[in-house]
Amino acid sequence: MKEVKLTDRKKTIELGEKVGQLLKAGDVLVLDGDLGAGKTTFTKGLAKGLDIPDLIKSPTFTIIREYHDGRLPLYHMDAYRLENGGAEDLGLEEYFDSDGVSVVEWAQFVEDELPADFLAIHFKRTDDENTRLLQFEPHGRHFEQVVTEL
Ligand SMILES: Nc1ncnc2c1ncn2[C@@H]1O[C@H](COP(=O)(O)OP(=O)(O)OP(=O)(O)O)[C@@H](O)[C@H]1O
Ligand SMILES: [Mg+2]
């Protein structure tokens, strides 16, 4: 498992951008980690890497936000509010099987819906307020390749 230390917000955005540039249609990324660990910040960079010009806002209350103005569509989801179930009603498979990129925050609540191939990224806060540790856990050859290129 690849682990990366990011010492400020900008570095997290930059890494997200790099990942975004390596993605292809149908890719699924699942992000987990505490509140404020940097999942949405990373997704902002990822959107930049997909050439999405829009401002990325946290989908905590809407659960899903869609962006269609980039190289690929981005489906940004936040499953935080699905802690007590309900993931099976969202039609996630349709997003996961689509020609877009799906990014899911708090993915532990949609575990049962995930496809065979996906990239899990674990976010951890540290003693330093501005430092985050990211662990990349690829499932499938495509994502192994993506992680190698980072
Ligand atoms: N190295 C860093 N990487 C990312 N964010 C950082 C870093 N250092 C400080 N921060 C700050 O931490 C916060 C991360 O918030 P963010 O919304 O990205 O977290 P989140 O994991 O999406 O939280 P939530 O679970 O509430 O959705 C931001 O205020 C950001 O500026
Ligand atoms: Mg968030």
UniProtKB/TrEMBL annotation:
InterPro entries: P-loop_NTPase (IPR027417), T6A_TsaE (IPR003442). Keywords: ATP-binding, Cytoplasm, Hydrolase, Magnesium, Metal-binding, Nucleotide-binding, tRNA processing. GO terms for biological process: tRNA threonylcarbamoyladenosine modification. It comes from the Bacteria. Coiled coil: none annotated. One of its GO terms (molecular function) is metal ion binding. It is found in: Cytoplasm. GO terms for cellular component: cytoplasm. Belongs to the TsaE family. This is tRNA threonylcarbamoyladenosine biosynthesis protein TsaE.
